[in-house]
Fold this sequence. Notes:
single chain; 21 helices; Methane Monooxygenase Hydroxylase, Chain G, domain 1
Amino acid sequence: MYLFSNLLGGIGVFLLGMTLMANSLKSLAGDALRRILSRFTGGMPSAILSGAGITALVQSSSATTLTTIGFVSAGLLSFPQAVGVIFGSNLGTTSTGWLVSLIGFKLNISLIALPLVGLGVLLNSFSRGKYSHLGTAIAGFGLVFIGIDILREGMAGINIDPEIFPGAGIWHRLILVLIGAVMTFVMQSSSAAVVTTLAALHSGAIVLEQAAALVIGQNVGTTITAALASIGGSVPARRTALSHIMFNLITGIAAFLILPGFISVLPYVSMVTGSTDPAISLAAFHTMFNLFGVIMLVPVVGPFINLVVRLIPEKDIILTRHLDPSVAEIAPIAVEAVRRTLLDITLVVLKTAASLLGQETDYHVLTGQLDKANSALLKTRSFLGTVRSDSSSLTERQRHLSALHAIDHLDRLTKALREFQCIDNIDKSERLNKIFNILLETINDTISGLKNGDTENVLESLKNASITMADFRRAGRSTILYATAKGEISPQASLAEIGAMIWLDRLGYHIWRIVFHLADKGTDDNTIPRDF
């Protein structure tokens, strides 16, 4: 019973340390993680290196995979980039085996790990913001090694004859692969399963061939986490999860086939290297077959991606597809997901405005488009309400405020566009036609600019157009009121024309402010005052 509690406790402490370290490192990275991913995941090689580096840092391929799924859903990574990160994460996760075999089993835990936990807790308790997250990461790192030490002691006390486990036959190896997959599923961490296997191998409870078969299963079993995370998710999220599953299955089959050859050449490798430690041999095997998988699939990554796209086709584009719950806890990433969602909503609203002003579609269809935008806006506002930005980061807070400003202006714009009656008065006045033509041309230019990502020129054009429309409206209002007082225009016609003029100015103003805030130009709303 004592040995069982040691094993269970060791796994628990290890998983706790991994969770604390992974979550705090993601929070600590914050906006830097968003910039790193966008900068270093441009091509397939850099995406693979990024995935391997991040996974080696957080010591969890599941954390990297789940983060990647969230980032793809948030629109921060394209699907091909995500595939590269997934390939790299499988390489990075093998660093756990090297860490344990080279250091974990040879380290005096009490000299390093316990002080790390103490330092981390103190830093977390007496600091705020990023330093608090750093403290949690340090404590988590210490707990990882304490968990390894408890596992090592627990395994050392177990006297098991390796012969009771399945032998060297193909069916016996297959049973061990299945056991390895179940271990990962139960622990919800391939790293924890691999560490447990290494501890068993180090204590002599199992032999190298058995441990290698278990590791193959554990490598495949980690896809279960990705599969569960993608259920009900966006199309990019499900594609990313399927890519992870396919890569690990293909790699697992290849590893299963080459396992007998690896075992047969191992004595010769040991003679050359002078190393007889089976734990190091297992870590080398884990790295080798994942590297082999990357080398095998990178040359055919194009057809690989096309196959996944065909298996999970894009149907209707959902405006809120970027708002994945998995990124809500990482404020900078969540705010960026909101910004991209608001850009999509803005395009829908602008197209609706262009149709309304051009009188191309009936009001029933336009109302449906506005309802669609309003529904997405409501979900976006609700999602943003769950996000908590770091008050110590000025940039992070400003981006959050910009998103709130953009939501407010979008809400006002959609309400203004429902005032369909204003369009009927435009043809009756030359003054209104001037503002109308400026607005319609600006809206069409804005739609093209946002599609092409050219926000700089669009923003300047919108600002100039809004200022011009405001000048026309002020001068026109005075002229209309003067003509009404002279009896040249009826009071009813005067009110209708002024109302239409203000309506057009409102549309132009809100469009300008929406694009201003979505272009990350700050939160300063020191603009020309309006009468609305």
